Amino acid sequence: MPRKNKNAYSRHNLVHIVRGGADYFSRIEDIAARAKVSLHMQVYIFDEDDTGRLVADALKKAAQRNVAVYLLVDGYASKGLSDSFIADLKAAGIHFGFFQPFLKSDSFYIGRRLHHKIMVADGEICMVAGINVGNRYNDIGATPAWLDWAICVEGEAAHQIRLVCERVWNRSPFREKCKISVKQDNTIPDICEVRVRRNDWVYNKTEITKTYRQAIQHAQSEVTMMTSYFWPPHKLLVRMAAASRRGVKIKLVLTAKADVFLSKYTERYLYQWLFRNNIEIYEYQKNILHGKITVCDRQWLTGGSYNLNNISAYASVELNLDVNDAGIAKEVSDELQAIIDKDCVRIIPADFSANNNVIRKFFFYLSYRIVHIIFYLFTFYFRQKGSRRQKAT
Predict the structure, then answer these.
(1) What is the band of 311 on the pLDDT scale with cuts at 50, 70, 90?
(2) Rounded to whole angstroms, how far apart are CA atoms 89 and 96?
(3) Diameter of the chain measured on Cα atoms
(4) Which of 28, 34, 245, 356 is the most buried (most CB within 10 A)?
(5) Domain ranges across the chain
(6) What's the predicted TM-score (pTM) here?
(7) The CATH number of 197-378 is which of 3.40.50.10810, 3.40.50.300, 3.30.1360.200, 3.30.870.10?
(8) Residue 369 CA neighbour count, 13 Å, CB half
(9) Are 224 and 240 spatial neighbours (Cβ–Cβ below 8 Å)?
(10) Helix H segments across 344-379?
């Protein structure tokens, strides 16, 4: 397990793993109801639909109790929010803000994305997730939610998450500064080790990327990785191949039904490489897989907003939680295996070749190259800024 800096783990935490859907949004309401002094929510997509109004109502109720409520959404992914919806939030006493990119229009986006999916009340309880706010992430009628995960924590890690939310909010010169002193609750006993990990390449934060490299490098027997939009940095692929050669069993759970077809084509270009390195591939069939969670050796796990791709590594503001607890890791490992057995199809080389002719494979390759070009064009400014910052330090 990646524990290079043991002191980075806080020990006084109570942890629950939450499946996406109705359970997640019920917990959102509960956390908002528990807030007494401050409530932060930072999310990439906030849709103005039934689920969005449900969450908005929970935030409004907190504001009505004189809780300082801060809602920060990504300026591109949540650009569809109407002026009247935002005005209603502000009228209820909610501090609302957009995380703005370097340059955007209705058809393109250049710069970082706020990819957080965080809620934290009073620095005492928080949820870190891969789950946005919208009907597709909820169980609506007979339609199941997209497959996703969250980690709910009470204790020291929640206090650290509150500080992260305050820093991100305060970084913009266009927002009223958040300066709230909340006494940390130290009543949680020594239960579970949790570590907050961040990625923001512009500010030289690459903790999640390093965590994944270390986890694969030090894995002893098995790694199960569930992820959406799989396009990992090259160094992680190198470590995956090395782990497989030394006998580590790696299972990769991806989606069969993609909301972005180009991303699925890009993933499938990598399948031949994965086959050559004896990495097992499973495609989730029931609905769209949107979760991002990895378990190592049934001892340790990481989960949050970070996708295993270069966008999360270099162009997004991300946050994960690492949980070092054999009981919780075993629980998640067993649930992932149950999903594999019940709702996934294993992709084997012979079937993949039979179902994909030369033309389709060419489109896989073309998609992979197009995604690379788009990535480098749309993150050029921030890559250069990051390079200068690293040289200066």
Answers:
(1) confident
(2) 7
(3) 62
(4) 28
(5) 7-191, 197-378
(6) 0.90
(7) 3.30.870.10
(8) 6
(9) no
(10) 349-355, 358-378
